[in-house]
Amino acid sequence: MFSLQSFYNQYETDPTEITLAGRKFTILLPRYLYDFINPWDVLHEFPLWAKVWKASWILAGYLAEKPVETDKQFLEIGGGLGLVSIVACSFGHRITMTEYNPDALRFARANAHLNHCPQLSILELNWSQPKLKGKFDYIVASEVIYKKDDFAALLKLFQTYLKPDGEIILASEMRKTSGEFYKYLQPLFCIETVKKVLRSENEKTLVTLFKLKFKSKGWRKVG
Fold it and tell me: In whole angstroms, what is the distance from residue 214 CA to residue 164 CA?
């Protein structure tokens, strides 16, 4: 059974407070990134999970405002520190958060307990060898598209776990690789984009929500 005290004994953390849709959430971040970096290969499995991405703010806020459908189930992939799923759970959505990195999974569980969501389902998921059960009405994610090597695995995951009439909601800032990913998906998906702006005192950031639904018969598994 997960214990916050054992988590605090293992990790040094810094809390950050986030307000979304009128509610406050406290998210624990790693105090030092170098604890999770291989000094001999800095770029290999760099801990991208160890920060709250701006796109995660946008996706979390979008789900907080989305009407709750108690018969619908959400799957979050690449959930990182857990913000999106914690917010969704707090506002009444049925959501399963997944991550592959074991440290990220521990931080997500700690943050779920800290924000009064101990019931949140948090599971390990390897995109290349997924072992989840069932299908979902929604698959959501923020800032998960970085490598072309992931394109095929993500498509297969979508085809395996999204219901035929389901929807995928992906949030990200626009990058070359993400643009290429959506072109890769176009043969099978209808894609709608919604532009959102995240404003702070010193800057504003454009984040795009990509909403995808299968085209006719596109949900069938390939290969």
Answer: 7
pLDDT digits (tens, 9 = 90+) for 152-178: 999 999 999 999 999 999 999 988 999
Q: What distance in Å separates the CA atoms of residue 79 and residue 85, rounded to the nearest whole number?
A: 7
Of the candidates 194, 153, 190, the residue with the CA atom closest to the CA atom of residue 172: 194
Element (H, E) at 73: strand 73-76
User: Model's pTM, two decimal places?
Assistant: 0.94
Rg (CA), the chain: 17
pLDDT digits (tens, 9 = 90+) for 129-152: 999 999 999 999 999 998 999 999
Taking the C-alpha atoms of residue 33 and residue 104, their distance in angstroms, rounded to an integer, is 12
Identify the structural domains of the chain with CATH numbers, from first to last: 4-214 (3.40.50.150)
28, 14 in Cβ contact below 8 A?
yes
